[in-house]
Amino acid sequence: MAQRWSISNALRGMFQRETITEETWEDLETALITADFGPDIAEEVVEALRADVDRLVVDDPRELRRMLRETLEERFAAYDPTLTLQERPAVILVVGVNGVGKTTTIGKLARLLASHGQSVVVGAADTFRAAAVEQLATWAQRAGVEVVRPEREGQDPASVAFQTVQRAQAGGIAMCIVDTAGRLQTKGGLMDELGKIRRVVEKLAPVSEVLLVLDATTGQNGVAQAQAFIEHAGVTGLVITKLDGSAKGGFVLAVQERTGIPIKLIGQGEGIDDLTGFTPHVFVEQLVG
Ligand code: GDP
């Protein structure tokens, strides 16, 4: 099935031409900008390809498709998408603003890890929204993993995170995924809260990953949103959600390059199995066609 964020349709006409002309380059740049790569990356990619085409004296547009794939793959692969989960328990903090798909991602990630034979506990440290706790508990149940809930509404999120790691240690559970709040209106407070969760958890165990969840449909605005978390929460990896929607695949490369943080997982649907590791080669194949 063609991905909706694929640029293959936009490029089809271009690759069907007899030779590479000035129009080819204009079409390519437009396709990349439309796909949300951002004007800077679009221009850089076009310039790099132009130079290669001149150097190698290429005039077959089909050859250009292969070169485009190679160029994009090289840029994507400059970052390591591997999750670092060697510690036991491996503690994963999941951060991001409300609505991006954080809770859903935790459910999917719990399932993904469980399907690889790992025992998992999730912690509901977004303690100010009773609905958030219930939603996470429902996902945990679907994924077939344990959940640690706050004992009362408004309990200190750091203490729930602490209890989750304690539970993992006591039960010999391999993976510990902690949900956190995402109230953007109190950014200072939220960042302080995330810092405290981290400090408290680190009294028990090192934090293996801090995953920032970003919604691909926010496009370039998502990059700005990411900066505060990156500055204050020690983000180690990005999860891009809603790539099944009307989102443009170029956002994925733009956000990785502009933040310098690797993409580790991508979400492509609302179902529990709709989360996969990020594989540059596969992604570029789908993107360029
Ligand atoms: P949170 O507030 O960040 O915890 O967000 P939720 O996990 O509650 O998700 C918000 C909405 O986004 C829900 O309707 C989810 O079903 C939806 N959602 C999450 N991930 C994806 C995804 O990868 N694709 C699509 N289409 N929807 C998603």
Would you give an account of this structure?
With 289 residues, the protein is α/β, with parallel strands linked by helices. The protein folds into two domains: 69 residues, Up-down Bundle (Four Helix Bundle (Hemerythrin (Met), subunit A)), CATH 1.20.120.140; 199 residues, 3-Layer(aba) Sandwich (Rossmann fold), CATH 3.40.50. It contains eleven helices and eight strands. Strands 3-2-4-1-5-6-7-8 form an eight-stranded mixed beta sheet, with helices on both faces. Helix 10 links the parallel strand 6 and strand 7. Helix 2 runs antiparallel to helix 3, helix 4 runs antiparallel to helix 11 and helix 5 packs parallel to helix 6. The model has no long low-confidence stretch (mean pLDDT 91). The structure holds guanosine-5'-diphosphate. Guanosine-5'-diphosphate binds next to helix 5. Keywords: Cell membrane, Cytoplasm, GTP-binding, Hydrolase, Membrane, Nucleotide-binding, Receptor. It is an enzyme of class 3 (hydrolase). Belongs to the GTP-binding SRP family. FtsY subfamily.
